[in-house]
UniProtKB/TrEMBL annotation:
Signal peptide bounds: none
GO biological process assignments: alternative mRNA splicing, via spliceosome; mRNA splice site recognition; regulation of alternative mRNA splicing, via spliceosome
Gene Ontology, cellular component aspect: catalytic step 2 spliceosome; precatalytic spliceosome
Coiled coil regions, renumbered to chain: none
Domain RRM: 34-107, 132-210, 397-486
Protein name: RRM domain-containing protein
Keywords associated with the record: mRNA processing, mRNA splicing, Nucleus, RNA-binding
Family affiliation: Belongs to the RRM half pint family.
Subcellular location: Nucleus
Organism classification: Eukaryota, Metazoa, Ecdysozoa, Arthropoda, Hexapoda
Molecular-function annotations in GO: RNA binding
Superkingdom of origin: Eukaryota
Organism this protein belongs to: Aphis gossypii (Cotton aphid)
Keyword Ribosomal protein (UniProt): no
Amino acid sequence: MEQSIKMVLMKQTLAHQQQQAKSFHRHQALILMCRVYVGSISFELKEDSIKQAFSPFGCIKSINMSWDPITQKHKGFAFVEYEIPEAAQLALEQMNGVMLGGRNIKVVGRPSNMPQAQSVIDEIQEEAKQYNRIYVASIHPDLTEDDIKSVFEAFGPIRTCKLAQGSTPNRHRGYGFIEYEGRQAAIEAISSMNLFDLGGQYLRVGRAITPPNALHGPSSSSHMPTAAAVAAAAATAKIQAMDAVATNAVLGLSKLSSQLGAQTAVLPGLQQLPTTLGITPAVPAATIPPPGIAIPQQIRAPVPIIPGTTGLSPVIQQAIPPPTLINPTQLAAPVIPIVTADAQKRADQQKKQEELQKKLLEETEPQTLQQQENMSIKGQSARHLVMQKLMRKTESRVVILRNMVGVEDVDDSLQEEIQDECSKFGVVERVIIYKEKQSDSVDDDSDTIVKIFVEFTQMSEAEQARDSLNGRFFGGRLVKAELYDQALFDHSDFSG
């Protein structure tokens, strides 16, 4: 019973951990939905300019700009994290291609450090489609929920209108959600009220991509009290034990009957024959035990009936020569099927229990940045793993070639020539020729520079190409080759 209680407690713990893991993955996916990538940022812009441009879509939680330690300037891209996913979605839809600081910024995609997050994001967005909710941002601080509700009621009946509560009473945070009774009313409200001037501020209105109460974090369901958990496990184990006893009784009875049906009846005078004469027991196939004979708890090895010996005294039976001789070592450890099966069953139960304990004690490697920040270091091997990760350099499979050609040298055959030349160092996946203007002049090409990006399949190939091409003269020009930031290239940002 004690072992059964432990098994039930382990199963309950595993089920609770699986539920917690599912809730945690959902929370991590929601955090990723709050982030956007902003590229092609002018090097003259600072963080406050980015915050001012993106704040109308919702409250910004953080802005992370990648700074170059040598030049003390940012690398031309940033990650903006909002408090809610709807603000990030509006920024994706309305800020891509907008002129900021003399350059058209790029707002594309969501950065993801958790590969399995996309399926969870799709599941959340499908769940949000069941509600006719819209997101409203850039609301004037002096407007109330009643004011917003009276404005948006023109499109249809409203179920709920809730603005995000501010730090002080009767103040909101500039955004909120409105849920309509009909889907068409929500669609019309988005198309009509987006960029509508209300109280001197332009409203930002979009669809809600999360269900209500989605950002409450992982499930915080408390554990069952210890006494209650043990009592529940004991009750469950008791029922399982009763079922197991009943099942084993039926199975044991049928197995015993089948074994006895294949053995001959043991006569009283022949019970000691195998040990005295060394006769190997042989079981005839078609013999049936006589009715009325009691079956002992421990079944002895069956004794064969030798023709012509039925009814003889033990003295005469001893004079009968043995049909076959048996190896004495085989008699030293007789195999009893019932005892072997019971021992095997206990061994299987012990093995299953050890596997469950191993699952409970396992600590998987953290998959997200937040998990890695909160992980604990245990043992020498764990410290060695962390040091390897800290020393791991950022990989890049892209080489950028500067000052290789001028804008007048770009033609249809240039890309093919560069690919053939770089194929000496490895497999080339892509060659991109990018013309970048240094001023706002449209007709003048004198201020245009040409950047050539070559993407290889392996980082070692890119490093070999960089070392070979850097400092080489091409058409009278001194080529400058270096590795290009992989994150910029993956987001089609060639402004670095």
